[in-house]
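[job 0412] stage=fold_complex status=start
inputs:
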Amino acid sequence: MSLTINDVKRIAHLARIEVSETEAEATLVKLTGILGLIEEMQAIDTRGIAPMSHSQDVVQRLRADVVTSGNQREYFQKIAPAVEDGLYLVPKVIE
Amino acid sequence: MINASLKEMAAALAAKKISSVELTQLFLARIKSLNPDMNAYITLDEARTLAQAKLADARIANGDITPVTGIPFAQKDIFCAKDWRTTCGSRMLENFIAPYDAHVISQFDHAGAVNLGKTNMDEFAMGSSNETSYFGKVKNPWDRERVPGGSSGGSAAAIAARLCAAATGTDTGGSIRQPASLCGFTGLKPTYGVVSRYGMIAFASSLDQAGPMAKSAEDCALMMNVMAGFDERDSTSLQRDKEDYTRDLNKPLAGLKIGLPKEYFAEGLSAEVAKVVQDAIAHYRKLGAETVDISLPNTRLSIPVYYVIAPAEASSNLSRYDGVRYGHRAAEYTDLLDMYCKSRAEGFGAEVKRRILIGTYVLSAGYYDAYYLKAQQIRRLIAQDFEEAFKHCDIIMGPSAPGTAFKIGEKADDPVAMYLQDIYTIAVNLAGLPGMSIPAGFANKLPVGLQIIGNYFDEARMLNVAHAYQQQTDWHKQMPEGIA
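[job 0412] stage=fold_complex status=done
writing structure:
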């Protein structure tokens, strides 16, 4: 299946990455090449094969829902782009 | 001392022939002189490094010594180290000061090792040449017009140029083994789940695994003793008993069955590399091993499968970079959506964006079954290939990479050609198996690696197999010219 320039823009929007018109053109060429590589999979009959996500037979461990460390808000917020009174600042989303 | 093994360094430290501060200063001086050209390190923090060395000297004076106490290691910049800038090779994290330690970092710290600095890498570990780093290309010490491999390219160059005693790396599709091959040293990717991923910046979580990169198998074994072990903070960390990875180093190899997959010696492998690898295998026969022909029929499919699974997981993992709590935020934007889109467009480089877009596409509505699910099914077929193969052999050998180090820029504009670099390494990640690369010789004056693939949790045997070869050959002891 071939990708179009509109597909590239749609995917970029889903991924929240701004792309200019020229970038979209160049990206289309590269993504088409990569998808061509991926397309080789379609020749394989995988009916009845269980998908594999982990090589070992593991189960999700559970832990008690308890606090394990102290409050480090100020320390963590030192690396934030914008904070005020302990809150992270973002553009207004509710009018 | 720069060419000494970890054991020799530890002995010199214990005998007070050298202090940790002196050993550390020796490497810092080398970094100062060679790194401006090599670009192996992104971040150095001499004061912090020397403070650790002083602590190590105090420990040594008190007799509180582990096999790595006082030894300076380079840490790949994918590991968060508290109060160290941790960039993952990306503009997105250019000013990110990690507020906590990765498990791997704290393991080295507890053992009294010294952190020399954070090494360069492909951005978010996505690349096979270190050319996608926001912090510039890294040169291969064997030929400075060539790439060191990637994504752990900075660690690779640092070892080859003796800018550290040893280094850490991570391997999602070959990022320890391919640079080990291209820069001529020993690197091990453990069984998935053996080394905790806590604090290791995520690329493709079902494949990412940290491992040692060093001058010899013995050094790697000592580092595995530091790095491996259960950690409850990583949900995929395996609950197993502590192992001593040095325990089998000196076992004889007589009777060892080596499987040679015909797919690893087929079209696509350079003739010079093939010859070096075959010579190494012939040496193993002399050591008493026998070889058997095996087949891993789905090898070819490992690349398409990987380029669905890894980008899919990456697109999900990298969605956390939104410019809100940490990381790059664009200077100007109109609203929240625009802030996300601009911050991510500016913060990520071209290859990372491509992989996020591929991942977003294969996971998007209507495509999940055709791509992601299908890839996970073929992944099982690939794992079954190995399962079948290990019924006929103890260990698998082949090349680590299809060629030697290529020229900087040669493949930079062709992602598909770059992806084929990992044709012999990716299947191991998909199956979750351990794999390593050891120096086996040279082709046109460039290092060639022999890949050793083991069954699950068979790292001690792999290290034994590598060590036996290194007791009889000196490929791993050779150094590039112009680094003395």
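[job 0412] summary: The radius of gyration of chain B is 21 Å.
[job 0412] exit 0
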